[in-house]
TrEMBL record:
UniProt-recorded name of the protein: DNA-binding transcriptional regulator, MocR family, contains an aminotransferase domain
Disordered: region residues: 419-441
Assembly with partners or alone: Homodimer.
Cofactor: pyridoxal 5'-phosphate
Keywords: Aminotransferase, DNA-binding, Pyridoxal phosphate, Transferase
InterPro entries named in the record: Aminotransferase_I/II_large, Class-I_PLP-dep_aminotransf, PyrdxlP-dep_Trfase, PyrdxlP-dep_Trfase_major, PyrdxlP-dep_Trfase_small
PANTHER family reported for this sequence: AMINOTRANSFERASE, KYNURENINE_ALPHA-AMINOADIPATE AMINOTRANSFERASE, MITOCHONDRIAL
GO biological process: alpha-amino acid metabolic process
Domain Aminotransferase class I/classII large: 82-408
Family of this protein: Belongs to the class-I pyridoxal-phosphate-dependent aminotransferase family.
One Gene Ontology molecular-function label: transaminase activity
Keyword Transferase applies: yes
Amino acid sequence: MTREQDHGQTPATQGSRIDAYVDRYAARATGMVASEIRALFAVASRPEVVSLAGGMPYVTALPLDMVGELVSDLVTRRGTVALQYGSGQGDPHLREQICDVMRLEGINAGPNDVVVTVGSQQALDLITRIFIDPGDVVLAEGPSYVGALGTFAAYQAKVVHIAMDDQGIVPESLAQTIYALETAGAPVKFLYTIPTFHNPGGVTLNAARRQQVLDICQRAGILIIEDNPYGLLGFDHEPMRALRADSPDGVVYLGSFSKTLAPGFRVGWALAPHAIREKLVLAMESAVLSHSSFTQLAVGQYLATQPWREQIKTFRELYRERRDALLDALDALMPPEVTWTRPSGGFFVWATLPEGLDSKAILPRAVAERVAFVPGTGFYSDGSGARHMRLSFCYPEPDRIREGVRRLAGVIEQEMQLRDTFGTGSTRDHGGVDTPGPDLA
Ligand SMILES: Cc1ncc(COP(=O)(O)O)c(C=O)c1O
């Protein structure tokens, strides 16, 4: 039967490579596209490639035998609870323990205001779901966390970036942007910020600016979403005081056990003012009914029986050594025209290339030279950021980090020579949100 004979009843699109339902998707799905750099990262995960791209915590440093015993014990002793549905808000005991963790950052809160989520990523999703209609404005640092930008895009938010320097978000830029948007009749729904050990910026909002940011947002009636998965992973000093510590009504705080324990448990949380917390629980129930009781109880058991503060110290020392390896290698090997941030915690360094170099265009060459990074374009909602790249130091051993920087410096030097020979190409705006995938977030 030919297509003419079946009167168009067979879908026009057949076979495995073409999507028969392409015209049936909701408008919000059109923004969900796999990044073209994903394929490249499949190559980059080969062992011969030094990946300065991934944001994966170094779970090898965990006492895995102990975790195994704890999990097995949990099933044997409390299996009927651990393997049952739980509540939408999360295990009450774990919520109390979460309050103890947050106290380390000056937060004084009760378990009733905590919602346990599937990683802090789900908290981001739920917050966006309850606040954002298509076209609503969200403010975020430029650059910002790729996973948050993906969520904002999925809900068709309009992200407006706020300038950031080596002391974090610039308060004047925040105030001016809010004023300009409100004057233009585009009120802001919330400010999304990562004040401490920023991903990807590697910078931390200083204490004076914290107060300024709180004041500006309070005056404008703008809710702050404080995303803080790295706050306890500082190298030089005691944890910073969280924004939420000084504004219980103005801030929704997002926390996570992904970096202080392990991301595989997928346990994070939101601490929210009471009314918002109620909506979050309803949104949580509509998304997944309840979080996994099993992983919540496992994390609770870990916190109750293991020296978790010591484990965080172990992680901090390990990541500090790797940060030093990365910064020392950059100082020693990079061409002087390249600059970068100097993080005092977290996982990431943000590097800026000389004029005329485009990190996304360089990536294939770098991978061929067996080193990978994440191009800066993934961290802006408008695809700008081509002169930047994120370098992570959380996963490779220090020697591998040094070798990775040696390879990368060689690639950048070659690119600069090409630029000098053939003239300055301008960096391009690439457009859209690049979502390179969970292990690279
Ligand atoms: C800034 C930031 N927020 C949220 C997340 C998500 O973490 P989780 O594993 O808790 O979902 C990450 C993970 O890399 C992150 O860097």
